[in-house]
Amino acid sequence: MKIIMGQNNMISETYEVHKSEELGRYLIAARDLSPGDVVLTELPLVFGPKAMFDPEASMPCVGCYKPVFTDVGERCSSCGWPVCSGHCPGLKDPRHHGVECAILSARPECVLDNMAEYYRHDALLPLRCVLLQHTEPDKWKNLLELQSHMECRTPGTEIFDEANEFIVEYLMNSFINKLDNSIKNKYLKEISEDLLHVMCGIIDTNALEIRLPDGAELNALYSTTCLMEHSCIPNTKHLFKISTKDSNNFYRITVKAVIPIAKGNHIATMYSHALWGTQARRQHLKETKYFSCKCQRCSDPTELGTYLSAMKCFGDDKGPCDGIHLPEDPLDEETEWACSKCPIKVNNSQINMLISQMGEEVENVQMLGGSVNMLENILCRLSTFLHPNHYHLYSIKHSLVQLYGRQASYMSEEILDKKIKMCKDLICITKTLDPGNARLSLYSAVLHHELHSALLVKSQKAKSDGTIKTVEEIKPFLEEAKGSLDIALLTLRDDVEETSGKKLFKVIEESKKDFEKFCKEKNINV
Ligand SMILES: C[S@@+](CC[C@H](N)C(=O)[O-])C[C@H]1O[C@@H](n2cnc3c(N)ncnc32)[C@H](O)[C@@H]1O
User: Fold this and answer.
1) Is the separation of the CB atoms in 22 and 294 below 8 Å?
2) Contact at 8 Å (CB) between 209 and 439?
3) Does the model's pTM come out above 0.90?
4) ipTM more than 0.95?
């Protein structure tokens, strides 16, 4: 894509880079963009493995990030870090392990216990960042222009102290301070604790997460994509090239418009979770990206009419009324939540505490495997306090619809009807929050797939008088099921490059074949 340097901004055919006091640099559309239009595509400046949260998990190979069995597996012959094989091509590739190996070799010993502390894979990306000054000076210049928010990351803050202990001191004490001057002068002319802190700030502010098919997760920095501002109603989606066959295109990112973006409008992505309520999203953005989101969704107490954060009336001594609590000013952290029908008000901190406790309960149930019984119990309990569209209930219902109608004991007409209603309600919320499937395509595809399956099972059920449904009676169910399957596949069209998108796409394609076979056998034309 052609990029022309302007006086104050850079202009391409699809976007312009602008700057403001509030947003820093951001992108606007240089022409009208339609859904599916490519806004930009670029290779990463640098990438590296993410932190491993589970010390028991297998470590990623430093050359290709495939999980390696460290107790029996091989080690890099120079630095001793775990690798999938001594012949892994990534070991020599400067974008992967090729250059960092010279630095990591400064610590010659090789241990087998307490390995997660010894081989800190999350320190590799900051190291690869500083090594760009030697390997790719142009990229180094670009990287230094990215925002680091060092003004907020001062000594004594949790984020600074963590980065200091786990990344900066680890890199300095284990490797950099042990380097021969000749190696240091060759690779790291500019190096200091402060510079490593800036790298940590740049990574935390800008990095995008890439999930690889083997389960490993990488962080990557991109010079233009990282300029996109956040909106809780994003108008773009990004996809990564993760196939390792084409090494010239490793982790190429492509940003596409998902809804029409008129010339001059801001081009935005989403840094937070689309299915969290406003308070949770804003708190997350404040803590991790240091700004207070004021987008249309955050400013609207009903979150675009979805009521995703709404609570039922808390009531007084006489009990609750049938009103709902919404924040009076969702952009104010001290806001009160007023009932729509009675004078009861509850303060924001109380609501936040309750919601986060409920969130933990929901998470626990889901981590325990969430049987239908467990999910129905928690749904029933939380429904006393939460609006039916609340995001905690969305999450429980999304799990339930994948169990209803699929197990012998949950196939009754009543359960199928319940499943159909839940799917339709959740589809409606999902569509409102993410009309272009920028972030919720997998959720949406699952819902459409489940809706199809409930309709299909229902079409085959005998009627209440025990007689079989006629073709004319079956047809409307099948037509709706087919439409739902087609939407599910269409929803995933951009996700097939990615592991979970590809898997789901295949499952739904199989369902479509079964569906067509069923229609053919019954001689029903839909
Ligand atoms: C990934 S960077 C985006 C590029 C950045 N503006 C720059 O100039 O390098 C993320 C930072 O941009 C700013 N930002 C992004 N979206 C914003 C928004 N909706 N409102 C306010 N600031 C925003 C915040 O400072 C945030 O930490």
Assistant:
1) no
2) no
3) yes
4) yes
